[in-house]
Design brief:
Blueprint: H1 3-6, H2 43-65, H3 76-99
């Protein structure tokens, strides 16, 4: 919030309608979100991006698909076991998808 609003003082200038007061955005000389240390079109960047994307997919499977945060595990040992079982299931799912394995117990 604006300093003057926080202290109940009337604003000396009305330069903005924002309740937070005037906003100033500081931009560094080199914005590393746009200009990365490794050029985006290089093979090294593509390999790094593949790694990051695969880790994010794994975390998504653990936290959203298997919902390991919702279990009512009381000890770190139980949480570790649940996370391990979920990780094994992720690998089994990938193996089944990759090999096209079909399990029919009643045939």
């Amino acid at each position: 919030m604006c300093y003057f609003d926080c202290h109940g003082i009337e604003k000396p200038c009305q330069c903005t309608d924002s309740p937070y007061g005037r906003t100033v955005y500081l931009k560094p000389k080199d914005d590393f979100r746009l200009i990365t240390p490794v050029p985006r079109n290089s093979d090294a960047f593509k390999e790094k991006f593949k790694t990051c994307a695969s880790v994010e997919r794994s975390h998504k499977r653990l936290f959203e698909d298997y919902d390991i945060e919702e279990y009512k595990a009381r000890s770190s040992r139980q949480r570790f076991a649940l996370a391990t079982f979920a990780a094994v299931n992720v690998h089994l799912d990938a193996w089944v998808k990759h090999t096209g394995f079909k399990y029919n117990a009643f045939t």
